[in-house]
Design goal:
By secondary structure, this protein is α+β, with helices and mostly antiparallel strands. The chain is built from twelve helices and twelve strands.
Amino acid sequence: MYVHSTNGRFAKPEHTCTPMGHTSSTNGERTHGTTAPEPKKESSTEKKRKEDMQFCSRVLEIPLTDIEVCWRAGKVDESKPEYCRPLIIKLKDEELVKEWTKDGVPTLERGDGSRTSGPADSAEVLAEAFSSVFVHEPENLPDVEMPEGNCDILNDIDISFDKVKHELETLNCFKSYGPDNIHPKLLQSLADDSSFVDAVVELFRECTDSGKLPEIWKSANLSALFKSGSKTDPLNYRPVSLTCILCKIYEKILRNEILAFVEDKISPQQHGFVKGKSCLSNLLETMDCILELLEEGIPVDILYFDFKKAFDRVPHNRLILKLQGLGIEGKVLDVIKDFLIGRNFRVSVNGQFSSFKKILSGIPQGSVIGPLLFILFINDLPECLKSTVKIFADDLKLIANLF
């Protein structure tokens, strides 16, 4: 006969005289019959871990067994309750996304005061709200003259076998697929197939030479994440865009070529999306500037600007003109034009899609090259202001003495 001991293991009982039907454990307490081990209580950390894994499985549409394997591989320290979450790194507002995933998008208010009747109806209202922020611009804009002394031109990019293979091998296989339904895990698994890599290289070279991208690459599936305010107001939702993975690989190669060309032309006041700079460098330079002025006995005023819907309202034609002014021409400029113009999107709510809407302005949401295009569009902003400015993407600090 075996009994449950205090160390949590089964062991033979000591030879003690006990009444029939009873056994004695090592601590001298009597138990009735053979005592089964008490089930181990699940800790709050373990419960939270399981909830997070189920959440990942539901949102990313990956089997729970695969999630568990990846989660264990990402655990950083057995002794700590914190876990590395490689699968939801892209979901920055984790609690917000959980709430949205659990409850879904509620019924929304239309402009006439009525409410949506279901997911498809809500998707259509959200699509209308997201497209309402776009701006129209005149087509006949003046030509841009190249700055004096600017002889550098970028009119082509190098697409090699090694570059494409590297991008395929380093794909994040936990990213969601886009409208073409090609999963990054599939593309990553084909990175060792030279025939496939050759085919992708030929596709990318054809895109560059023709200045045309596949139409599916210019489509996006959008989900709506609640920000703040009333949940019935469609303008209180933030669009999260899913685009084609192959297009993102091509964008990355294109971005690297453009960045190498314009790196020394980017304003030193810009700290967003720039290598070697961050929020911290922005703050340190701001403090340094303020202290210098105070030491000279000059009063300092700081004005903070946050441009509303800045990325969605970038006018395409003026962006193209500014890129020309930086020396980007030929095939590269043609590809960027085609990338920006003729895009469309649809919104998904609980598996129901809206109709496709045209994108009339703005930097494509969820794109790889988008942030670089934005900072190039506002690159001349510091030159237009007399006061010192510090910029992080579309957030601007103006340091001045207003009196």
